[in-house]
């Protein structure tokens, strides 16, 4: 499942083609993805202008001139590609906005939605597993939409700090990794980047989350270090284009690069990357998901 860095990378790739542009034509090639498309999906989009393209947690949000918000989720295998120029729609015409040609390997039979924009770009949503999602939500109702109303703070927002995380973790006996994966605690984090941030902060994924909060709800220095690690890992991943594990692709069709910088994820049995540490990376299963960590330097 794409995490915050992957979705932010896609947002940055789509924004030049979408923001300020109008939906000239919308092609929907099947009745549903994870859910059915909204009634009159095509009619409600065509003619509308994208005022802004935002990200909230793992969702893309296109604010429309009609007062609706186009809410999109990539699911497990969904990806967008941007096609521009006179050959848009033909093989070989796929571009990242501003620049270079990149071949894609996705089967065209899985191109389920096509947005033709007044910017001249053609945005194609490809989703082999069809776990993606596209909804239209009135802007005034977005905050209380079931997919949005309980989403936690954005970890890269300036207002997200150790004090705010301490409030969410105080008294929690759940393992630290499980607490960080809870989208009501912090938005957008997933298995990969939680493993990476915990290693960078030298914190065990198995320790009780509440142990990072002192009496009176005061964050401990280790919680301060964790927040700094989360921000650093996410920023590095966004800069690198996200992770390319399994199905994630950037809008230009290329793979992300962050997987080549993993400190612990999918490195079972390899030496710990922490300078001076003699540990080896271990893999355990927590809540049905693989956790990678160093038992020597993560406490």
UniProtKB/TrEMBL annotation:
Active site: 2 (schiff-base intermediate with dna), 3 (proton donor), 58 (proton donor), 289 (proton donor)
Keyword Chaperone: no
Cofactor: Zn(2+)
Gene: mutM
Sequence similarity: Belongs to the FPG family.
Catalytic activity: Hydrolysis of DNA containing ring-opened 7-methylguanine residues, releasing 2,6-diamino-4-hydroxy-5-(N-methyl)formamidopyrimidine; 2'-deoxyribonucleotide-(2'-deoxyribose 5'-phosphate)-2'-deoxyribonucleotide-DNA = a 3'-end 2'-deoxyribonucleotide-(2,3-dehydro-2,3-deoxyribose 5'-phosphate)-DNA + a 5'-end 5'-phospho-2'-deoxyribonucleoside-DNA + H(+)
Organism expressing this protein natively: Rhodoplanes azumiensis
Positions bound to DNA: 110, 129, 172
This protein's name: Formamidopyrimidine-DNA glycosylase
Co-factor note (free text): Binds 1 zinc ion per subunit.
Keyword list, A-Z: DNA damage, DNA repair, DNA-binding, Glycosidase, Hydrolase, Lyase, Metal-binding, Multifunctional enzyme, Zinc, Zinc-finger
Role according to the record: Involved in base excision repair of DNA damaged by oxidation or by mutagenic agents. Acts as DNA glycosylase that recognizes and removes damaged bases. Has a preference for oxidized purines, such as 7,8-dihydro-8-oxoguanine (8-oxoG). Has AP (apurinic/apyrimidinic) lyase activity and introduces nicks in the DNA strand. Cleaves the DNA backbone by beta-delta elimination to generate a single-strand break at the site of the removed base with both 3'- and 5'-phosphates.
One Pfam family, short name: zf-FPG_IleRS
Documented EC number(s): 3.2.2.23, 4.2.99.18
